[in-house]
Amino acid sequence: MGWQLSIRNKFSVFTQTKKVALILMTDELCKSFHCYVWGLDLKSKGHDVKIVLEGPATRHLAFMNPQNTSDLAQQFRAAHAAGLIVGACQAAAVGCACGGPCAQGEGEPLTQIAEQSRIPMLAEVHGHAGITDFVDQGYQIIVF
Asked: Is 35 helix (H, G, I), strand (E, B) or coil?
C-alpha cells in the first residue's frame, strides 16, 4: 500500500493510503449524491476508490447525458471522469429478479450507454456484480 504525507492541524502525519469499494445499490438522491461526493473526496486525498453500480443505481448510467444538469448527474459524471465508476451490474441494468426491472431507463438501453461510456457490465455472481475481487485485493467495502 502507498503512503502519503498529510498536513492536519499544522502537524505532519503519515497516513496509509486506503482502498475503498463503494457499492451503490440505491437511486435514493441523498445516498447516491454522497457516494459520489465522498468517493471523489477520498480520491482527492490520495485513496484508491472504486464505485460499483448495483440494483436501481444502474439507472444512473443515464446521467451520462450531458443535458441532465442536476447536481446528482454532475457528481456522477465527475466520478466517471475521475475513473471511479468501475462497473455496473449487468442483471440490474437489463432487469433483474429483484421485483422487476431495477433499471428501466428512458431512451437508450442502459447497457448501450455503459458500453459507449466504457463502463463495464459486471456479472461475476449469477449475472450480478461480485465483491470477491475487491475483498481479495484488500478493499474496505461500503454499501449505500
From this structure: helix
Q: Where along the chain do its domains lie?
A: 33-127
Query: For cell 485485493, what's the residue?
Result: 137
* Residue 21: its H or E element: strand 19-24
CA angle 44/120/40 to nearest 5° reads 15
- The 10s digit of each residue's pLDDT in 113-133 is 999 999 999 999 999 999 999
Cα separation, 47 vs 38, in Å, equals: 11
Cβ proximity of 50 and 22 under 8 Å: yes
pTM: 0.83
Q: Which three cell numbers stand for residue 143?
A: 454499501
Please name the residues in contact with 55: beta carbons below 8 A apart, sequence gap of 6 or more. Answer: 25, 26, 89, 92, 96, 98, 102, 103
